[in-house]
């Protein structure tokens, strides 16, 4: 089977080898169909790459989800992919065994989301057969038909386009977390709530309507044609965390339509590696730090005339954190708002 030949799947890992292994198990059908997977590791302290290599040798497992629907997505007892481990230098030069189905990349440092993923994107661009890249969060489980559904949606469209998917909450697979991506409020510099969030899966709205409303696709799952990377470029490495996708699609300037494949489903743990909010959990200190730092950098770069509205809105968030008794979060945000105008690293 080679219907997915030319598709490269890029996962970014940071101290999350169990999530990455579970995700890889759900990707086995795609690998068998010809897709290649890169796991780019941001200098994990938990020996993630060693654990993933052990999994490839049938010496390690991630454990099975307690939810029957999710457990069915993890391929057990199947042949593991041919695996090779390479350095960041080798990856960015496109150097790997052509028979390797799973390529583990040691990024050599914690590069953040944009720069970490860009290592994998540079590898993919160096491959002559690369036609599409699927940027996928490692804390997901995907249905076997997710990738083919996104490819079909792109191929049926008569204009340059990128494609997202229907993302469900891992903790409750019947509830939608996001349909494709988000709208963006440029006056305040804020992403609005993800499209379709908290809807029952049986209450899916018309996807065509959502596509017309989207300003960007979520970095959790986006299928990009080679032409997007060659036209728009890689992600902006000035951002360590957050706002990378917003910056990317702002630069794309509507040259590529934003599509959603309504038959492409996956399940996302959402922010577990950095402790960001999911369901009733509030934002972590790291989440608040980089969210507000990246927001200010983005607004200074693209909407300087509206920076005052964004700043006022951000200070209101400080007040809200204080009212909720989240003093440390309030202090972190205040420090970021007083930070000099520098890159978001």
UniProtKB/TrEMBL annotation:
Domain Glycosyltransferase 2-like: residue ranges: 99-173
InterPro entries registered for this protein in UniProt? Glyco_trans_2-like, Nucleotide-diphossugar_trans
Keywords assigned by UniProt, alphabetized: Glycosyltransferase, Transferase
Care to name a GO molecular-function term for this sequence?
glycosyltransferase activity
Superkingdom is: Bacteria
Homology family: Belongs to the glycosyltransferase 2 family.
Name of the protein: Putative glycosyltransferase
Give the species this sequence originates from. Congregibacter litoralis KT71
């Amino acid at each position: 089977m080679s219907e997915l030949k030319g598709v490269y799947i890029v996962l970014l890992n940071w101290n999350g080898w169990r999530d990455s292994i579970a995700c890889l198990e759900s990707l086995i059908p795609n690998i068998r169909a010809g897709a290649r997977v890169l796991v780019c590791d941001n200098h994990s302290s938990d020996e993630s790459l060693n654990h993933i290599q052990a999994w490839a040798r049938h010496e390690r497992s991630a454990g099975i989800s307690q939810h029957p629907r999710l457990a069915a997505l993890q391929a057990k007892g199947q042949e593991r992919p041919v695996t090779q481990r390479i350095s960041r230098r080798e990856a960015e030069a496109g150097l790997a065994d052509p028979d390797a189905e799973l390529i583990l990349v040691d990024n050599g440092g914690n590069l953040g989301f944009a720069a970490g993923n860009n290592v994998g994107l540079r590898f993919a661009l160096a491959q002559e057969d690369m036609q599409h890249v699927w940027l996928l969060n490692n804390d997901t489980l995907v249905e076997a038909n997710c990738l083919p559904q996104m490819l079909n949606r792109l191929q049926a469209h008569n204009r340059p386009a990128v494609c997202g998917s229907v993302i469900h909450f891992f903790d409750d697979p019947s509830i939608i977390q996001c349909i494709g991506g988000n709208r963006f409020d440029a006056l305040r510099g804020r992403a609005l709530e993800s499209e379709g969030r908290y809807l029952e899966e049986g209450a899916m709205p018309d996807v065509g309507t959502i596509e017309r409303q989207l300003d960007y696709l979520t970095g959790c799952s986006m299928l990009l044609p080679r032409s997007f990377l060659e036209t728009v470029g890689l992600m902006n490495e000035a951002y360590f965390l957050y706002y990378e996708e917003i910056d990317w699609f702002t630069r794309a300037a509507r040259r590529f339509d934003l599509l959603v494949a309504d038959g492409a489903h996956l399940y996302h743990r959402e922010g577990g590696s950095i402790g960001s909010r999911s369901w009733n959990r509030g934002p972590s200190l790291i989440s608040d730090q980089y969210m507000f730092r990246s927001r200010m950098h983005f607004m200074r770069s693209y909407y300087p005339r509206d920076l005052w509205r964004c700043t006022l809105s951000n200070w209101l968030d400080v007040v809200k954190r204080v009212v909720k008794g989240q003093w440390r979060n309030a202090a972190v945000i205040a420090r970021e708002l007083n930070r000099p105008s520098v890159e978001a690293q």
